[in-house]
Amino acid sequence: MDRGPATGRSAGSGSVLYVVPTLGHRTEYLAQCLDSLQSQDHPHLTVVLVTPSAADHVRAEAASRGLHWVQQRGSGISGAVNQGWLAHGRNHEFWAWLGDDDTLTPGSTRRAVARLEAEPRASMVYGRCRYVDAEGRTLHVVRPTGAASRLMRWGPNLVPQPGSVARGEAVLRAGLLDEQLRYAMDLDLFLRLQDVGPVRYLPEVLATFRWHAASTTIVSSAASEVEARAVRVRTWTGRRSVGRAAEPLATLAGRALHKLQRASGDSLH
Question: Whole-angstrom Cα distance, residue 85 to residue 83?
């Protein structure tokens, strides 16, 4: 799906590239993911699937939907996303990616882009995220607030990746996703984007994150936490003493915010 670049555009209509990296193992979830992208009320949205060559059924699915397809070189989510961005990002102002088991809420892209267009210096926007189980039933809604982006350099990362949208130019200046990382590549990019321009919060549910047994977030939670801390520490160059002092306080604040955002997450909005 390629609705072309924006001309004489209205608010929130800047061109967007969404990359969906997938191995093609979860066809039902992938279909829901693509449905959510193709139903966006955004006039200039391009969707690119990046898959290994063996995933012929995904290539066929992309063709049947009129979507772009890129054969993945190497392995790993970060490499797949970077490959999709570099292959199709030149004519798109805003870049994003979405896991093949996650979905966007109706109007998500338009609202996120409008927020970025309202503040040209902003490098990225993120919002609330609805957590659902394997069958799509709502578990809770996380409401990270603007405090999450201020805490993520020193404590836990509470910024949802699903639904976040970045300015493509800012991603290139920040240096794309780190392909050596397996779990905390989103946090790493968020921190580098923060050095390029403000990371802003939109108090609306932009996406759903599927909490299921095969999710990397669940299967590798311990390894993810270790990698995330290593990512944070390496950004403390020239301010390690500040980092060591701020980390325990930020961790406590992050835990409190995590409990608060879930406690207030009964509403779907």
Answer: 5
3-state helix, strand and coil shares in percent for the chain, rounded to the nearest 5: 40, 20, 40
Is-above-0.70 flag for pTM?
A: yes
- Domain boundaries defined on the chain: 16-263
Instruction: Return the DSSP state at 102.
Output: -
- How would you write the pLDDT of the chain (269 residues) with one tens digit per residue? 666 554 455 777 799 999 999 999 989 999 999 999 999 999 999 999 999 988 899 999 999 999 999 999 988 999 999 999 999 999 999 999 999 999 999 999 999 999 999 999 999 999 999 999 999 999 999 999 999 999 888 878 889 999 999 999 999 999 999 999 999 999 999 999 999 999 999 999 999 999 977 766 666 778 998 999 899 888 876 666 666 677 776 667 667 766 776 655 444 44
**Which residues are within 8 A (CB) of 178 and not within 5 positions of it... i.e. 6 or more apart?**
78, 185, 188, 189
Q: Does domain 16-263 have CATH number 3.10.290.10?
A: no
Six-digit token pair at 243? 């980092």
Question: CB within 8 A of 19, min separation 6: which ones?
Answer: 48, 49, 50, 80, 81, 84, 85, 95, 96, 97, 98
